Structure formats: structure tokens, C-alpha cells
Amino acid sequence: MQVFNSVNKMQEWCRDYKMQGKKIGLVPTMGYLHEGHLSLVKEAVKSCDIVVVSIFVNPIQFGVGEDFDDYPRDISRDTNLLEKENVHAVFAPSIKEMYPEGYSAFVQIEGEITRKMCGASRPGHFKGVATVVSKLFNICQPDLAFFGQKDAQQVMVIEKMVKELNFSLEIIRCPIVREQDGMAMSSRNAYLNKEQRQQALILSQALNRAEDEIINGERNIKKVRETMHELINESPQAEVDYIIICNALDLSDLQEIRGKVLIALAVKIGNIRLIDNLQVEV
Predict the structure, then answer these.
(1) In whole angstroms, how far apart are CA 96 and each of 5, 6, 59, 99, 255?
(2) What is the CA 165 to chain-centroid distance, rounded?
(3) Is the dihedral of CA 94, 99, 100, 101 positive or negative?
(4) For a 10 Å CB count at each end of the chain, is N or C smaller?
(5) pTM for this one?
(6) Could you give the CA distance from residue 265 to residue 240 in angstroms, rounded to a whole number?
(7) Domains and CATH numbers, the chain
(8) Alpha-carbon gap, residue 59 to 95, rounded angstroms
(9) Catalytic member of 34, 37, 88, 229
(10) pLDDT tens digits for the chain (282 residues)?
(11) CA-angle at 238, arms to 235 and 244, nearest 5°
């Protein structure tokens, strides 16, 4: 497995394999890998001739007062894990390599898809995501790129960008990977102390409660959201950022729960912001 820090060298290496007709898979990450990341890697290894994993904590998708400086990093640990998964290359550039002095090119996805949910509570977040992902696509030249469903809104934004900017690749969505107790895996889980870790279970429990209500016939969005709020409020350190029930295909608003529905939420446990979601079809 090779580790590249240079944009040019990574691009040249990928270009050589493209010229050989190899199918390249890319798994973009911010590192501090867990089994959720590795499930994406495993899928890429199954589907592609060459697999590249990027590790880059992208500063422009973090807002003022967010956790960029504290975001967990351990490149040695990550590269050891990836070597065991038969990854061919890791792309781990510096900030200066990705955004050299004078950098001023950004990708902005407009519309409702970026105005709600994380787009509303984290202004500029998706501008940073779209910019870095488009750069990674141009550098690594993948045929397939693998993203986790836990970041459901992010995947939709990237799919829209790929379609409307005519990127020649396919986005592969992979299921959320959960701990045995139901908590969605996330690098930010490392921030949680023992008490917070227990309270963080409220996210998946609220989603499961909502799913049960819908399966049992509830179609009123307001009532389901109120049930979720009440359950989350039982945890003393939990503070709801958003709870949304919307169309799972495009995040558009619904009058009632019909068709393929996304239930998504963001909750702060202390100072730690966690997200989760599930899809229900009725």
C-alpha cells in the first residue's frame, strides 16, 4: 500500500491505472477510522480493481467554534487498518497541499437540499464538503465513490453535484453500521465519556420509536416529531438541534408520512453533536 501526500503524485498514480483500464474506487474519509469506514472500504475492494482511501480533515467544512482543532486524528493507526483491508493507496494531503496560498475556488450547491438540517445549523458546511469532494474526484479520478448513509444529506448533496456538474463516476451508498446497542458509528463517538455514551443511545432509540409509530399507522409528522422530542428530553445532557421527517429521495417537505420517508436528527450530548437517520417506506 502506498501513501501519497502530494496532489500531483496521487493524480499521476491514478491516471496510470485509468490508462490501464482499471476500475478505481475512492473512499473519502476524515480519518480516525471505525468499522463504518471499513465497511465502505470492504465494499470498494469487492467492486473495484484499485482502491484509494483519502484521509483529510477538511477545514473549510467546519464552522467557527466547531471541533476542527479537536477532531480525532491518528494517521498511523488508520494506515495500519487500511493495509489489512488490501487498500492500494492512501491519499493524506496537508491543508497547504489542498488549499495553497491564494486559494479561492469553491463549489456551492444551492436550493432546499442544503438549506435545511445540517445546512441550516452549520452555515457553509456543504460548500466545504462539495469543494473538497470535487477536488478529491478530480485528483483520484474514481469510477465509483463510496459514502455512508449515516450522512444522508451529505450523500444527496454529492449525488446532486455529480449529476449536475457531469462528473464521470457513480456514487455508491452503503448502509449505516451500528454498535451492538444500536448507536451509529462515528469518529465523534470518541469524544463521549461513559455517561454521555449511554445518553447518546437516545438518538437511535428515538428513531426506532418513530419507526414503530409509523409502522403502527401514525401518519402525522408533527405527532411523530413530538414523540421523538419527548423521549430525547428525558436525557439530561441531550439538546435537539433538529428532527426532520421528509421525502427520502430529495429531502422535500411532506404534508403527511407517505412513500419513502427519511427520519433524521441531530442532537448535542453536552458539546458533542451527533447525527443519525433511518428510512421508512409506507
Answers:
(1) 11, 10, 11, 5, 47
(2) 20
(3) negative
(4) C
(5) 0.96
(6) 8
(7) 2-174 (3.40.50.620), 187-281 (3.30.1300.10)
(8) 8
(9) 37
(10) 999 999 999 999 999 999 999 999 999 999 999 999 999 999 999 999 999 999 999 999 999 999 999 999 999 999 999 999 999 999 999 999 999 999 999 999 999 999 999 999 999 999 999 999 999 999 999 999 999 999 999 999 999 999 999 999 999 999 999 999 999 999 999 999 999 999 999 999 999 999 999 999 999 999 999 999 999 999 999 999 999 999 999 999 999 999 999 999 999 999 999 999 999 999
(11) 110
* 34 is an active site residue: no
Encoded amino acid at 245, one letter: I
Side chain identity at residue 192, one-letter code: L
